[in-house]
Design a protein that fits this description.
By secondary structure, the chain is an alpha+beta fold. About 30% of the residues lie in helices and about 25% in strands.
Length: about 160
């Protein structure tokens, strides 16, 4: 099982003049909603403590990675290892994902001595989408105009809850 969470940072608040209704995809992914993310996979915690991680981008990228790891036509029967990296744009750290059969190993380069978290691919996909939608619901409560942003509509349509 995998658990995902986040906290927004007080050190990196969004600019007060932000128009969330018209914010660009770049701003939504890289400039707004900074904080930390928490990932716990089967008792292995791979969390950040930097305060500047773009939380919406993390949720968006995690959904992209879950789909990328499912590109092999053999799906859960694929013996070939499928890999993907989630990079953090402000430093060189990565979350690394490696899928073989129906299992995904997740490791963090900033925690080199930590064992990788191992989760089922279906759990990763479902939890990533739930995390995205839960994060968006929280952000809509804080910034109601965000729900009117066309990029957010596209994102919600692309990654529906499972």
């Amino acid at each position: 099982m995998i658990e995902l969470g986040y906290s927004l940072s007080n050190r990196f608040p969004d600019p007060p003049q932000t128009d969330y209704r018209t914010a660009s995809v770049h701003a939504l992914r890289y400039d707004l909603f900074c904080g930390d993310v928490f990932l716990d996979g089967d008792g292995v915690e791979l969390s950040t403590a930097w305060g500047w991680v773009p939380v919406l981008d993390f949720a968006w990228a995690l959904c992209d990675i879950a789909e990328e790891l499912d590109r092999d036509p053999a799906g859960g029967r694929a013996a070939r290892v499928q890999t993907a990296d989630l990079d953090f744009t402000q430093n060189t750290e990565l979350l690394r994902f490696a899928r073989r059969f129906n299992w995904v190993e997740i490791s963090a380069t900033w925690l080199p001595d930590e064992e990788p978290a191992v989760v089922r691919h279906g759990d990763l996909r479902r939890e990533a989408r739930d995390f995205l939608h839960d994060t968006l619901a929280d952000l809509f409560d804080m910034h109601p105009d965000l729900a009117d942003n066309p990029a957010i509509w596209s994102l919600q349509g692309r990654f529906r809850r499972i």
